[in-house]
Amino acid sequence: MPAQTPTITTFQPPPSSTSCPEPSAKCLACMATTATDNIPAICRNRGRPEEPCGIYRISHVYWQDALQIIDPDDSLAQDYGRCVVDDQCAERIVRSYVQRYGGKDCSGDGRIECQDHVRLHMRGPGGCHRQEPLGSLAERRLEKCLKYSGIT
C-alpha cells in the first residue's frame, strides 16, 4: 500500500467557543462609517500591494491575516480585489480579523466593546495594544455612530 502524502493547510477553523465577542451588525456598520463614512475606497495598485479599499478600507496585509481562519473553499474571499469591494465578503474578512486578533481592550476601560473592535480594525493589534488614537475625523465618526446606534 503506497504511503499517503500529508496535506498541509494554514486554514484554522474558528474555535467552538471564543472569549472575544463577535462584532454585531451595528458595530460592523460603525466600522465602515469610521473607516470610510460608508463610501467605498477605490482599489488602486500603483506598482505596490493594493492600497486599502472597500467600505472597510481593507489592506492586502489585513486580508492575508484574516484568511488564516477563512474557509479555503470560500473562493470570493480568496480573491483580494473582488472580496474587499463586495460588502458581504468584506464583512467576513473583518469578522475573521476581529476573531483572530480580538479579545483585546483597545480603549483601556476594562471592557471589550464595539469601540475596541473598531480600534483593532483601524489600528491593528499593535496599535490596539499601544492604545493609539484614531485620527480626529475617524474619532468623530466613531463617536457619532456609537451614539446614533445606541451601542458601546
UniProtKB/TrEMBL annotation:
This enzyme's EC code(s): 3.2.1.17
GO MF term list: lysozyme activity
Signal peptide extent: none
UniProt keyword list: Antimicrobial, Bacteriolytic enzyme, Disulfide bond, Glycosidase, Hydrolase
Catalytic activity: Hydrolysis of (1->4)-beta-linkages between N-acetylmuramic acid and N-acetyl-D-glucosamine residues in a peptidoglycan and between N-acetyl-D-glucosamine residues in chitodextrins
Cystine residue pairs: 27-114, 43-53, 83-89
Domain of life, source organism: Eukaryota
GO biological process, one term: killing of cells of another organism
Protein name (record): lysozyme
Organism: Drosophila erecta
Lineage of source species: Eukaryota, Metazoa, Ecdysozoa, Arthropoda, Hexapoda
